[in-house]
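Before going further, learn to read the protein records used in this course. A complete example follows; check for yourself that the lines match position by position.
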Amino acid sequence: MIFIDASFFIAASIKKDQWHTRVLEILPEVTKQDKITSIVVLSEAVTMVGSLAGGKMGGRLYNYIIDNHEVKFIDKDLSTQAMNFFLKYDGVLSFADSVSLELMKQGKVDTIASFDSDFDKVKGIMRIH
């Protein structure tokens, strides 16, 4: 199981993104695994892709994520637990990243596909980039 971050979805969708070529290189490794993400990541990725490439492209990304990933939703308990990560890293990690980490912890997932180097600060997490 691998967690997919917004930066990975954005780089895969936007050809001009600095990481687009790298996504294509590591995509075979990622696609053969079960994938998990969050509604927060979905929101961030679809919004960014939509603003850069238009609503139709954002819609295609939305459908791809929904069809090919287990999308976790957040509730009050998850938000509260994610806040522990946020406070532990003193705001260096975004709240969205903190939600991702809490979901990874709960699901015993130790690998994330992301171009966000902030995840390198977290012990026990392997970042594919």
Remarks:
- The CA atoms of residues 10 and 48 lie 7 Å apart.
